[in-house]
Amino acid sequence: MLVQAGTPWNLNFHILDPNRHCPASLVCPNVVEGNFNDYDAVMSFGSDKDLLTIEIENVHTGALRELQQAGKRVFPSPEVIEHIKDKGIQKSFYTKHQIPTSPYVLVKSKQEILDKIKQQELTMPFVQKLRTEGYDGRGVAVIKSHHDTELIMEGPSIVEEAVKIDKELAVLVCRGREGQVSTFEPVEMVFDEKANLVDYLVSPARITEQQMQEAKNLALKVSEAFGTAGIMAVEMFLDQNGKMLVNEVAPRPHNSGHQTIEGTITSQYEQHLRSILGMPLGSTINTSSTVMLNILGAEGHTGAAKVKGFEEVLKVPGAHIHLYGKSQTKPFRKMGHVTIESDNLHDALDSAHRIKSMIEVVT
Q1: From CA 225, how far away is CA 147, in angstroms rounded?
Q2: Exposed/middle/buried for 103, CB within 10 Å: 0-12, 13-18, 19+?
Q3: Is 196 part of a structural domain of the chain?
């Protein structure tokens, strides 16, 4: 999607991915097969490039740091990636910069969590998150009672107090190379409880104008603390007492901003490119009310992907289908998304719920 945004500008993209036939290869002929968490692969790939950016945090930051020292432009900076790829460091960063976040403790192992429960140092419910490599609901366990302790994962983790959530929100912030900033309108994320990832999101969020501004201000504070150019997605909780708490951030275009492709004057992908290339930032005004529905792999299906219901979705006014070109599906894997535009948010939500029953990714 980043390549698609830059194609009208005649930008020359190159992709490093472990799979030569990755989804980006459908729109970019310059794909280098290699592990982006391998020092030699990243150094070789970046040696003749002008500018480097990421779409996942699990990259070799040591190599990116050396490339940056050699004069390459790297966005986000390797330092920021290192802070964010480790959730423990990320949470400590919020504490240091007085950014509100849910109470937490750092633990080294599953046994340490069990010991803290036994010693009544941890009370349920709580949320365990592995410090590294978790994404799209993986590496997260919600422990509601003693019956759930078998779900506790092994490995260094953060254990967070379970927040009594009213809504989960996200705000995209973009910071230019010269420090100029812009925010997109806050969106409301509705999660699939079984998969523990976003089922659909609503834009703009169904919150008050005061809460809208508070969410934007909090996102701007986070962006200023990190100080790196490019798009940053700031996910936050609005608790039942009306308090906003930062949950996690992603220093890159993000699932919570996909609706901007059709629903905003400037998409998150174009805005990211404007930022890291040192160009003026674009308008972030919404052009419509939108609902973005993730297309997930169906339960019980693992193997070659087949999309059912595509033509039915095309009949729905205002619906835009994005399939990611992933050849293999598995339960709850993100295989694409549908954005529904409407002048009326209620109508967009109604269409989204109908589309959810139409489209399915099976084997």
Answers
A1: 40
A2: exposed
A3: yes
- Can you give the pLDDT at residue 331? 95
Q: How far is CA 156 from CA 57, 86, 174, 222, in A?
A: 18, 10, 31, 25
156 and 19 part of one domain = no
Per DSSP, the three-state class of 159 is: strand
- pLDDT higher than threshold 90 for residue 13: yes
Mean pLDDT (the chain) is 96
Q: Are residues 262 and 172 in the same domain?
A: yes
Cis-peptide, bond into residue 204, ω within 30° of zero: yes
**41 contacts: CB under 8 Å, gap ≥ 6:** 16, 34, 35, 60
What is residue 272's three-state secondary structure?
helix
| Of the candidates 56, 29, 218, the residue with the CA atom closest to the CA atom of residue 136 | 56
* Pairing, β 334-342 against β 319-323: antiparallel
User: Who wins on pLDDT, 75 or 137?
Assistant: 75
Q: What is the 3-state secondary structure (H, E, C) of 31-89?
A: EEECCCCCHHHHHHHHCCCCEEECCCCCCCHHHHHHHHHCCCEEECCHHHHHHHHCHHH
- By three-state DSSP, how is residue 277 classified? coil
Residue 274's nearest CA partner among 169, 175, 143 is: 175
Is 96 a domain residue?
no
Q: How many residues does the chain have?
A: 363
Number of domains in the chain: 3
* Tokens (6 digits) for 28: 């970019």
What's the sign of the alpha-carbon dihedral 224, 227, 233, 237? negative
With beta carbons less than 8 A apart as the criterion, state whether 186 and 204 touch. yes
* Host domain of residue 339: 165-362
Cis peptide before 186 (omega within 30 of 0): no
91 lies in a domain?
no
**Contact criterion met (CB below 8 Å) for 255 and 269:** no
Residues 270-280 pLDDT 10s? 999 999 999 99
Q: Are residues 332 and 274 in the same domain?
A: yes
310-335 mean pLDDT: 96
Residue-level pLDDT at 224: 97
Q: Tell me the pTM.
A: 0.94
